[in-house]
């Protein structure tokens, strides 16, 4: 490490969901800060293209498969930074969400981070340093008539973050979550189609977020600049939650 508190040279980072959206922005940001980046994704072609562009390494894995998640951790090896960015979302009503859809939300959004932290954080703790950031969602605190499975999976991430901060914090490993509001990613745009203007009407900022804005927050959290932050849930939502009580 250099004296620059935002410099990540000498660090190795695993970023899940790195082939699109927030994950891709995070991967590019960490690489620009000097980290050696390991990219995860399901799309091998996109992953290998991004790896060439950023000088990173790509590992394909299916996060709905617990054994494949553990294989990802094993192939990644020793990492200093873990960013759990991969996620799935389906904004359907409860009655229209079957068991398979619910299980998929939990598997990717909650169980995969749980397994990766369990596989990678102990070695970080042994070395006495490390940083873990999971991408949550304002949906964990902002109930809506649709999307209960997604909200539940992201609420799980928030409580896990607090447990992990308590478990690993004394050993030099910091664990935090960034919970965005609507962000203009490919996936969100595909869901909303020609109704994307609604994304600009849900918060006090008057617009949806951009993946790069979330990536900057992640970059801060994994760097020495945030050395006293542990167990924090940062809502990057443009003020979406500002009107809630408490």
UniProtKB/TrEMBL annotation:
<dbReference type="InterPro" id="IPR036291">
    <property type="entry name" value="NAD(P)-bd_dom_sf"/>
</dbReference>
<dbReference type="InterPro" id="IPR051122">
    <property type="entry name" value="SDR_DHRS6-like"/>
</dbReference>
<protein>
    <submittedName>
        <fullName>SDR family oxidoreductase</fullName>
    </submittedName>
</protein>
<dbReference type="Pfam" id="PF13561">
    <property type="entry name" value="adh_short_C2"/>
</dbReference>
<dbReference type="InterPro" id="IPR002347">
    <property type="entry name" value="SDR_fam"/>
</dbReference>
<dbReference type="GO" id="GO:0016491">
    <property type="term" value="F:oxidoreductase activity"/>
</dbReference>
<keyword id="KW-0560">Oxidoreductase</keyword>
<comment type="similarity">
    <text>Belongs to the short-chain dehydrogenases/reductases (SDR) family.</text>
</comment>
């Amino acid at each position: 490490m250099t004296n620059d508190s935002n410099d990540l040279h000498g660090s190795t980072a695993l970023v899940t969901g790195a082939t699109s959206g927030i994950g891709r922005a995070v991967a590019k940001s960490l690489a620009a800060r000097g980290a050696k980046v390991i990219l995860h994704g399901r799309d091998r072609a996109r992953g290998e293209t991004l790896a060439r562009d950023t000088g990173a390494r790509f590992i394909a894995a299916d996060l709905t498969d617990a054994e494949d998640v553990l294989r990802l951790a094993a192939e990644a090896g020793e990492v200093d930074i873990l960013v759990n960015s991969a996620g799935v979302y389906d904004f359907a009503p409860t009655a229209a969400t079957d068991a398979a859809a619910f299980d998929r939300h939990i598997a990717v959004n909650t169980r995969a981070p749980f397994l990766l932290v369990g596989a990678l954080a102990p070695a970080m703790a042994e070395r006495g340093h490390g940083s873990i950031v999971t991408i949550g969602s304002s949906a964990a605190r902002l109930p809506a008539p649709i999307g209960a499975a997604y909200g539940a999976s992201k609420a799980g991430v928030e409580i896990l973050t607090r447990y992990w901060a308590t478990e690993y914090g004394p050993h030099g490993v910091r664990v935090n979550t960034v919970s965005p509001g609507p962000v203009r990613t490919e996936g969100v745009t595909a869901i909303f189609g020609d109704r994307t203007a609604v994304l600009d009407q849900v918060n006090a900022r008057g617009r949806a977020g951009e993946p790069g804005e979330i990536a900057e927050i992640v970059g801060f959290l994994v760097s020495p600049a945030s050395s006293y932050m542990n167990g924090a849930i940062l809502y990057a939502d443009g003020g979406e939650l500002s009107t809630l009580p408490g």
